[in-house]
């Protein structure tokens, strides 16, 4: 942790965190806090909301306005918060199971509305906290507690899903690419609309162990060796791209934001009364 960030943004009495040794989540959280610090917001301007899962422990460590909600419902709570106080910078921290399975419906509708919420998914390809069940991002053929012979479901591409549903800012980074996480989160927060940032994490305890991915160092090396930035990918041949996955800023557009549109309706209503 960069000197000063812990003192400034973390709840001392909640530390040390209880993520497993080698878990990628701490790197991602540090990168998010760095983005907020670099944007220079007052702590009271930020509200961080989570659901349930290993990733969703994050707000409990942070000294912003924070809310730890129920499984899959972080975006529903965050929508209420944003509607009640559009001036808040609302950030949702969620996991792949929380966001794309249990909360999948909330995700597509928050994106469709283009409500000004920055959603950051800690994608560890499995349900970590609840014991290693396969999730909508567990790759086909990989194992989980509930898929001991291999998952037969096709996995979601979360960024494609969010973009198709209407998100106006979409990007992906990994726990290895900490600086990129900070850049994407800064841009996501500054986007006036629904921003979706997937951060590929590492879970050596469940996903790694069940799928013989080696230790945390091996898993981080996999991210380093197999992620390719979309800018570099544009000038790469098919052979170099084979088996790789893309990171970087994928999509941005300017479209009407939900709370702005809602407030216009409220103004019309009040004038006509
Ligand atoms: Fe991290 Fe996995 Fe441990 Fe959860 S179970 S804290 S995701 S390593
Ligand atoms: Mg998960």
TrEMBL record:
GO terms for molecular function: oxidoreductase activity, acting on the aldehyde or oxo group of donors, iron-sulfur protein as acceptor; thiamine pyrophosphate binding. Residues 52-198 form the Thiamine pyrophosphate enzyme TPP-binding domain. Keywords: Oxidoreductase. InterPro entries: 2-oxoacid:Fd_oxidoreductase, THDP-binding, TPP_enzyme_TPP-bd. It comes from the Bacteria. GO terms for biological process: cellular respiration. This is 2-oxoglutarate ferredoxin oxidoreductase, beta subunit. It comes from Caloranaerobacter azorensis DSM 13643.
């Amino acid at each position: 942790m960069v000197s000063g960030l812990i003192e400034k943004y973390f709840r001392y009495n909640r530390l040390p965190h209880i993520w497993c040794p080698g878990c990628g989540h701490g790197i991602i959280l540090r990168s998010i806090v760095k983005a907020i610090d670099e944007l220079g917001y007052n702590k009271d301007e930020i509200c961080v909301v989570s659901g349930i899962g290993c990733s969703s422990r994050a707000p409990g460590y942070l000294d912003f306005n924070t809310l730890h909600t129920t499984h899959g419902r972080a975006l529903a709570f965050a929508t209420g918060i944003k509607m009640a106080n559009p001036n808040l910078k609302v950030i949702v921290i969620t996991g792949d199971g929380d966001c794309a399975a249990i909360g999948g419906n909330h995700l597509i509708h928050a994106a469709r509305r283009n409500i000004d919420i920055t959603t950051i998914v800690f994608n560890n390809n499995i349900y970590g906290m609840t014991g290693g069940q396969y999730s909508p991002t567990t790759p086909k053929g990989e194992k989980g507690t509930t898929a001991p012979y291999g998952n037969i479901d096709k996995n979601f591409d979360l960024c494609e899903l969010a973009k198709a549903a209407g998100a106006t800012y979409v990007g992906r980074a990994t726990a290895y690419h900490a600086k990129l996480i900070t850049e994407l989160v800064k841009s996501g927060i500054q986007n006036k609309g629904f921003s979706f940032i997937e951060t590929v994490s590492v879970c050596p305890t469940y996903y790694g162990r069940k799928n013989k991915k080696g230790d945390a160092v091996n898993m981080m090396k996999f991210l380093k060796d197999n992620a390719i930035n979309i800018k570099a990918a544009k000038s790469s041949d098919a052979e170099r791209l084979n088996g790789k996955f893309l990171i970087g800023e994928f999509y941005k557009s300017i479209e009407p934001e939900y709370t702005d549109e809602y407030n216009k309706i409220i103004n019309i209503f009040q004038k006509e009364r």
